[in-house]
Fold this sequence. Notes:
Distance between the termini: 68 Å
Shape: elongated
Structural class: mainly alpha
Number of strands: 4
Helix content: 40-55%
Strand content: 5-15%
Order of helices and strands: HHHHHHHHHEEHHEE
Radius of gyration: 32 Å
Amino acid sequence: MKVIIPAIVGHVPDDMVRCLVAFLDFCYLARRPSHTLEDFTRMQDSLDRFHQLRVIFIAHGIRPDEFSLPRQHALSHYIPSIKLFGSPNGLCSSLTESKHIVTVKKPWRASSRHNPLKQILDTNVRMTKISAARIDFGHRGMLNGMILTITRDISLIAIYLIHQGQDDEDDVEGEDGPEVDVITRLAVKPVSSTLLARLPQELNCPYFVELCRRFLFGQIYDDPDLDADLVELENCPMPDDHVRLFSSASSIFYCPE
Protein backbone atom coordinates (compact mmCIF):
# COMPACT_ATOMS: atom_id res chain seq x y z
CA MET A 1 0.00 0.00 0.00
CA LYS A 2 2.91 2.35 0.61
CA VAL A 3 3.72 2.52 -3.10
CA ILE A 4 0.39 4.21 -3.85
CA ILE A 5 1.44 7.59 -2.50
CA PRO A 6 4.67 8.06 -4.52
CA ALA A 7 2.89 6.77 -7.62
CA ILE A 8 0.12 9.39 -7.56
CA VAL A 9 2.08 12.43 -6.40
CA GLY A 10 1.96 15.05 -9.15
CA HIS A 11 -0.85 13.28 -11.01
CA VAL A 12 -3.73 14.15 -8.67
CA PRO A 13 -4.48 17.22 -6.53
CA ASP A 14 -2.40 17.58 -3.38
CA ASP A 15 -5.43 17.31 -1.10
CA MET A 16 -6.21 13.88 -2.58
CA VAL A 17 -2.70 12.77 -1.72
CA ARG A 18 -3.05 14.13 1.82
CA CYS A 19 -6.42 12.38 2.16
CA LEU A 20 -4.95 9.02 1.17
CA VAL A 21 -1.96 9.58 3.46
CA ALA A 22 -4.33 10.14 6.38
CA PHE A 23 -6.30 7.02 5.46
CA LEU A 24 -3.17 4.85 5.21
CA ASP A 25 -1.87 6.22 8.51
CA PHE A 26 -5.12 5.13 10.14
CA CYS A 27 -4.93 1.67 8.51
CA TYR A 28 -1.37 1.00 9.63
CA LEU A 29 -2.13 2.18 13.16
CA ALA A 30 -5.25 0.00 13.34
CA ARG A 31 -3.32 -3.10 12.22
CA ARG A 32 -0.81 -2.94 15.06
CA PRO A 33 -0.62 -6.01 17.32
CA SER A 34 -1.18 -3.81 20.39
CA HIS A 35 -2.34 -0.26 21.06
CA THR A 36 -1.63 2.46 23.59
CA LEU A 37 -3.53 5.63 24.44
CA GLU A 38 -1.12 7.53 22.23
CA ASP A 39 -2.01 5.23 19.33
CA PHE A 40 -5.71 5.95 19.85
CA THR A 41 -4.99 9.68 19.75
CA ARG A 42 -3.03 9.32 16.50
CA MET A 43 -5.75 7.13 14.99
CA GLN A 44 -8.43 9.68 15.81
CA ASP A 45 -6.30 12.47 14.40
CA SER A 46 -5.73 10.54 11.15
CA LEU A 47 -9.44 9.74 10.90
CA ASP A 48 -10.42 13.38 11.44
CA ARG A 49 -7.98 14.51 8.74
CA PHE A 50 -9.33 11.86 6.37
CA HIS A 51 -12.95 13.01 6.86
CA GLN A 52 -11.89 16.62 6.48
CA LEU A 53 -9.89 16.09 3.29
CA ARG A 54 -12.13 13.60 1.50
CA VAL A 55 -14.43 16.41 0.32
CA ILE A 56 -11.86 16.91 -2.45
CA PHE A 57 -13.40 13.89 -4.19
CA ILE A 58 -16.81 15.61 -4.12
CA ALA A 59 -15.39 18.90 -5.37
CA HIS A 60 -13.82 17.22 -8.42
CA GLY A 61 -16.96 15.22 -9.25
CA ILE A 62 -15.49 11.83 -8.37
CA ARG A 63 -18.19 11.34 -5.72
CA PRO A 64 -20.93 13.77 -6.82
CA ASP A 65 -23.53 12.13 -4.54
CA GLU A 66 -21.33 12.55 -1.47
CA PHE A 67 -20.29 9.55 0.62
CA SER A 68 -22.42 6.68 1.85
CA LEU A 69 -19.90 3.90 2.20
CA PRO A 70 -20.36 1.34 5.03
CA ARG A 71 -16.66 0.56 5.20
CA GLN A 72 -15.73 4.21 5.67
CA HIS A 73 -18.39 4.51 8.35
CA ALA A 74 -16.91 1.44 10.05
CA LEU A 75 -13.67 3.37 10.59
CA SER A 76 -15.35 5.35 13.35
CA HIS A 77 -16.00 2.12 15.28
CA TYR A 78 -12.40 0.91 15.29
CA ILE A 79 -11.19 2.80 18.36
CA PRO A 80 -14.18 1.88 20.61
CA SER A 81 -14.06 -1.73 19.39
CA ILE A 82 -10.33 -2.05 20.07
CA LYS A 83 -10.86 -0.69 23.57
CA LEU A 84 -13.64 -3.22 24.18
CA PHE A 85 -12.33 -6.33 22.44
CA GLY A 86 -8.60 -5.83 21.87
CA SER A 87 -6.39 -5.21 18.86
CA PRO A 88 -7.44 -6.86 15.56
CA ASN A 89 -3.75 -7.66 14.91
CA GLY A 90 -4.02 -7.67 11.12
CA LEU A 91 -7.40 -9.41 10.96
CA CYS A 92 -8.89 -9.14 7.48
CA SER A 93 -12.57 -9.52 6.59
CA SER A 94 -11.60 -11.28 3.36
CA LEU A 95 -10.98 -14.45 5.41
CA THR A 96 -14.66 -14.83 6.21
CA GLU A 97 -15.58 -13.81 2.66
CA SER A 98 -13.47 -16.60 1.19
CA LYS A 99 -15.15 -19.11 3.50
CA HIS A 100 -18.55 -17.70 2.54
CA ILE A 101 -17.79 -18.44 -1.11
CA VAL A 102 -16.87 -22.07 -0.40
CA THR A 103 -19.59 -22.90 2.12
CA VAL A 104 -22.52 -20.86 0.81
CA LYS A 105 -22.15 -19.47 -2.71
CA LYS A 106 -20.80 -22.53 -4.51
CA PRO A 107 -23.16 -25.02 -2.79
CA TRP A 108 -26.08 -22.71 -3.57
CA ARG A 109 -25.13 -22.65 -7.26
CA ALA A 110 -24.99 -26.45 -7.20
CA SER A 111 -28.47 -26.68 -5.65
CA SER A 112 -31.82 -26.73 -7.42
CA ARG A 113 -32.67 -23.31 -5.86
CA HIS A 114 -35.78 -24.89 -4.30
CA ASN A 115 -35.47 -25.05 -0.52
CA PRO A 116 -31.70 -24.73 -0.92
CA LEU A 117 -30.73 -24.69 2.77
CA LYS A 118 -30.82 -28.47 3.23
CA GLN A 119 -29.01 -28.97 -0.07
CA ILE A 120 -26.30 -26.51 0.96
CA LEU A 121 -25.83 -28.28 4.30
CA ASP A 122 -25.72 -31.70 2.63
CA THR A 123 -23.14 -30.44 0.14
CA ASN A 124 -20.95 -29.09 2.94
CA VAL A 125 -21.19 -32.37 4.86
CA ARG A 126 -20.28 -34.41 1.78
CA MET A 127 -17.38 -32.14 0.82
CA THR A 128 -16.05 -32.34 4.38
CA LYS A 129 -16.19 -36.14 4.27
CA ILE A 130 -14.48 -36.19 0.87
CA SER A 131 -11.71 -33.92 2.19
CA ALA A 132 -11.26 -36.14 5.24
CA ALA A 133 -11.17 -39.25 3.03
CA ARG A 134 -8.58 -37.65 0.76
CA ILE A 135 -6.34 -36.89 3.73
CA ASP A 136 -6.75 -40.45 5.02
CA PHE A 137 -6.04 -41.96 1.60
CA GLY A 138 -2.98 -39.75 1.27
CA HIS A 139 -1.61 -40.97 4.60
CA ARG A 140 -2.16 -44.55 3.45
CA GLY A 141 -0.24 -43.89 0.22
CA MET A 142 -3.30 -44.62 -1.91
CA LEU A 143 -3.02 -41.42 -3.95
CA ASN A 144 0.55 -41.82 -5.15
CA GLY A 145 0.91 -41.88 -8.94
CA MET A 146 -1.70 -41.79 -11.68
CA ILE A 147 -4.32 -44.49 -12.11
CA LEU A 148 -3.58 -44.67 -15.85
CA THR A 149 0.09 -45.38 -15.18
CA ILE A 150 -0.72 -48.00 -12.55
CA THR A 151 -3.29 -49.67 -14.81
CA ARG A 152 -0.83 -49.80 -17.69
CA ASP A 153 1.88 -51.30 -15.48
CA ILE A 154 -0.51 -53.98 -14.27
CA SER A 155 -1.52 -54.73 -17.86
CA LEU A 156 2.10 -55.07 -18.95
CA ILE A 157 2.81 -57.46 -16.08
CA ALA A 158 -0.22 -59.56 -17.01
CA ILE A 159 0.87 -59.70 -20.65
CA TYR A 160 4.36 -60.75 -19.60
CA LEU A 161 3.01 -63.54 -17.41
CA ILE A 162 0.77 -64.78 -20.21
CA HIS A 163 3.71 -64.98 -22.61
CA GLN A 164 5.77 -66.79 -20.02
CA GLY A 165 3.02 -69.33 -19.47
CA GLN A 166 2.67 -68.33 -15.84
CA ASP A 167 -0.90 -67.20 -15.94
CA ASP A 168 -3.19 -68.62 -13.32
CA GLU A 169 -4.97 -71.74 -14.55
CA ASP A 170 -7.72 -71.27 -12.01
CA ASP A 171 -8.98 -68.06 -13.56
CA VAL A 172 -12.73 -67.92 -13.71
CA GLU A 173 -14.00 -68.54 -17.21
CA GLY A 174 -16.40 -66.15 -18.87
CA GLU A 175 -20.05 -66.62 -18.11
CA ASP A 176 -22.50 -67.41 -20.85
CA GLY A 177 -25.08 -64.73 -21.38
CA PRO A 178 -26.64 -62.43 -23.91
CA GLU A 179 -24.14 -60.51 -25.97
CA VAL A 180 -24.86 -56.81 -26.25
CA ASP A 181 -22.83 -53.90 -27.52
CA VAL A 182 -21.40 -51.54 -24.96
CA ILE A 183 -23.10 -48.17 -25.30
CA THR A 184 -21.12 -45.15 -24.16
CA ARG A 185 -22.54 -41.66 -24.17
CA LEU A 186 -20.42 -38.59 -23.53
CA ALA A 187 -21.62 -35.37 -21.99
CA VAL A 188 -23.52 -33.02 -24.29
CA LYS A 189 -20.74 -30.45 -24.45
CA PRO A 190 -16.98 -30.79 -23.94
CA VAL A 191 -15.50 -28.81 -21.09
CA SER A 192 -12.42 -27.86 -23.10
CA SER A 193 -10.19 -28.82 -26.00
CA THR A 194 -6.45 -29.21 -26.13
CA LEU A 195 -3.61 -30.76 -28.10
CA LEU A 196 -3.00 -34.46 -27.70
CA ALA A 197 0.71 -33.84 -27.18
CA ARG A 198 -0.02 -31.84 -24.01
CA LEU A 199 -2.07 -34.50 -22.25
CA PRO A 200 0.77 -36.85 -21.21
CA GLN A 201 2.36 -34.06 -19.20
CA GLU A 202 -0.93 -32.73 -17.81
CA LEU A 203 -2.03 -36.23 -16.75
CA ASN A 204 1.46 -37.25 -15.64
CA CYS A 205 1.12 -40.30 -17.88
CA PRO A 206 3.96 -40.50 -20.43
CA TYR A 207 2.32 -43.48 -22.20
CA PHE A 208 -1.03 -41.77 -22.74
CA VAL A 209 -0.62 -41.38 -26.52
CA GLU A 210 0.42 -45.02 -26.82
CA LEU A 211 -2.62 -46.12 -24.83
CA CYS A 212 -4.86 -44.05 -27.09
CA ARG A 213 -3.37 -45.60 -30.22
CA ARG A 214 -3.81 -49.14 -28.93
CA PHE A 215 -7.36 -48.33 -27.83
CA LEU A 216 -8.19 -47.08 -31.32
CA PHE A 217 -6.70 -50.22 -32.84
CA GLY A 218 -8.95 -52.37 -30.68
CA GLN A 219 -11.98 -50.30 -31.66
CA ILE A 220 -11.25 -50.34 -35.39
CA TYR A 221 -10.12 -53.97 -35.73
CA ASP A 222 -12.65 -55.94 -33.72
CA ASP A 223 -10.86 -59.26 -34.09
CA PRO A 224 -10.57 -61.58 -31.07
CA ASP A 225 -7.33 -62.98 -32.51
CA LEU A 226 -5.71 -59.54 -32.48
CA ASP A 227 -4.61 -58.22 -29.11
CA ALA A 228 -4.09 -54.47 -29.23
CA ASP A 229 -1.51 -54.72 -26.44
CA LEU A 230 0.65 -57.06 -28.53
CA VAL A 231 0.46 -55.24 -31.86
CA GLU A 232 3.45 -53.19 -32.91
CA LEU A 233 2.84 -49.55 -32.09
CA GLU A 234 3.66 -48.52 -35.66
CA ASN A 235 0.60 -50.45 -36.84
CA CYS A 236 -1.75 -48.59 -34.49
CA PRO A 237 -3.61 -45.55 -35.84
CA MET A 238 -2.63 -42.09 -34.68
CA PRO A 239 -5.39 -39.93 -33.14
CA ASP A 240 -6.07 -36.38 -34.24
CA ASP A 241 -3.86 -33.66 -32.82
CA HIS A 242 -6.81 -31.79 -31.30
CA VAL A 243 -8.87 -33.61 -28.69
CA ARG A 244 -11.94 -32.55 -26.74
CA LEU A 245 -12.27 -33.25 -23.03
CA PHE A 246 -15.58 -34.32 -21.51
CA SER A 247 -16.24 -34.13 -17.79
CA SER A 248 -18.55 -37.16 -17.67
CA ALA A 249 -19.74 -40.19 -19.60
CA SER A 250 -22.20 -43.04 -19.12
CA SER A 251 -21.82 -46.65 -20.27
CA ILE A 252 -24.38 -49.43 -20.62
CA PHE A 253 -23.13 -53.02 -20.70
CA TYR A 254 -24.17 -56.52 -19.70
CA CYS A 255 -22.90 -57.88 -16.40
CA PRO A 256 -23.80 -61.48 -15.46
CA GLU A 257 -25.05 -62.09 -11.95
